[in-house]
UniProtKB/TrEMBL annotation:
Annotated EC: 4.2.1.46
Family (UniProt): Belongs to the NAD(P)-dependent epimerase/dehydratase family. dTDP-glucose dehydratase subfamily.
Coiled coil: none
Catalytic activity field: dTDP-alpha-D-glucose = dTDP-4-dehydro-6-deoxy-alpha-D-glucose + H2O
InterPro entries, per the entry: dTDP_Gluc_deHydtase, NAD(P)-bd_dom, NAD(P)-bd_dom_sf
The protein, known as: dTDP-glucose 4,6-dehydratase
Enzyme class: lyase
Keywords from the UniProt entry: Lyase, NAD
Amino acid sequence: MNNNVILVTGGAGFIGANFVIAWLQAGLGTVVNLDKLTYAGNLDNLRSLKDHAQHVFVQGDIADRALVDALLAEHQPSAIVHFAAESHVDRSIHGPADFIQTNVVGTFQLLEATRAYWARLSAADRDAFRYLHVSTDEVYGSLDVDDPAFSETTAYAPNSPYSASKAASDHLVRAYHHTYGLPVLTTNCSNNYGAYQFPEKLIPLVIHNALAGKPLPIYGDGGNVRDWLYVNDHCSAIRRVLAAGRVGETYNIGGCNEKTNLQVVHTLCDILDTLQPAAHSYRDLITFVPDRPGHDRRYAIDASKIQQELGWQPAEDFESGMRKTVAWYLANQDWTDNITSGAYRQWLETNYAQRNKEPA
Ligand code: NAD
Ligand code: TDX
C-alpha cells in the first residue's frame, strides 16, 4: 500500500473537483481520479491542475470491476474517497435508471473491488486503509418546521429516487463494514454551494439565469428549507473524517444555515444587484413554477458529532460564502457558457480523444 496515494471517484464533478484541488494544493499526496465524465463531469473543473505531477486522471466507470481492480493493483491507494454519483433530484424523477446503476450497482462494484484489494494487504495496511463514502442528508427524508435536525441516529426515510439510491449505497457500505470488517466511514452532508457546481442546481442556475435576464424559477411556494454549506467546508470535513474518524461511524456535516429557497434566491439577487447592477432589480425575475413531485419540505443537520468528536468547524458563514460564490460565477462566466452552449462537450471530444491517442 502506498500511503502517499488516494483514489477519488467522481473527482471531475462539483464537490469532487473542489476536493481534489484542495488536496493537491495542500500537498497531501497523489490523487488517482476516476471519473466517467457523464454530463456532470467536466475536465474544465480541473484546469488549474493541468500537468500536475500528482494528479492521475482516469476516465472510467466505477461499475467497471476490471478497471477498478487494475487501478487498485497499480496504484495501491491507502484510501478511497467515493464521490461519484448521479446527483440531481429532478433528473432522478424523470429517469431513475442511471441512479440505480451508478449509485447502487456502481457503489456495490467499487465495494467488491475494494474488499478484494483490502484482503490482500498486510495486517498493518488493512488497519490503516480507509474507504470514505460521501453521502447526503436527503437519506433521512423530510422534516416539519418544528422537528429536531437530523442526527446520525435518525431513521432513514428517503423520498426521491435519488435519495433512495444514496440510502441503498449507504446501507451497502455499512454492511461491508459489519460483515467483512472493511474500514469504512460515511458522511451525510447538507446542500453544498460554491465554484464548479453544474448549472442545473438552484444556486448556479439562478446566477446564470439572472445574468441572462431569464426567469428565476422557484418551485412551489419557495418555502422549502435546505441547510447550506460552502463546498470548501464540506471538503475540509471529509479530510478531517478521513484523518480521525472512527471506523464504521457515520458523521453528519452541515453549515447551520437553514434557509428557505426564497431567502436563498433573494440573497443571490441582492448580491448581484451590488456586484453587477442591471436596469431592473434581479428580484423582478423571480417566477413561481409548479412544484417538484414529492418535494421534501425541510432538511436540517445536527453536526455536533463531527464538531465535538473531530473538532471540525465550517470556516465560511452563509453571507461570505454566497458572496464568494457569486463573485466566482461572475469571474468565470466562460465556465458556465461552455457547459450551456455545448462548447465544452465539443472541446472534450476533440482534446480528450486526441490525448488518448498520444503515446504515454
Ligand atoms: P456532480 O453530479 O457534480 O458530480 C458527480 C461526478 O461523478 C461527475 O464528475 C460524474 O462524471 C461522476 N460520475 C457519475 N457517474 C459515474 C460513474 N458511474 N463512474 C465514475 N464517475 C461517475 O455531483 P456532486 O454534487 O459533486 O456530488 C458528489 C457526491 O456528493 C455525490 O455522491 C452526492 O450524492 C454527494 N452530495 C452532494 C451534495 C450537494 O449538495 N451537491 C450534498 C451532499 C452529498
Ligand atoms: O430551479 C429550481 N428551483 C427550485 O426552487 C431548482 C433547480 C431547485 N429548486 C429548489 C428545489 C430544492 O428545494 O431549490 C432547492 C435546491 O434544489 P437543488 O439545487 O436541485 O438541490 P437539492 O434537490 O436540495 O439536492 C442537492 O442537495 C443535496 C444536491 O443536488 C444533492 O446531490 C445533494 O444530495
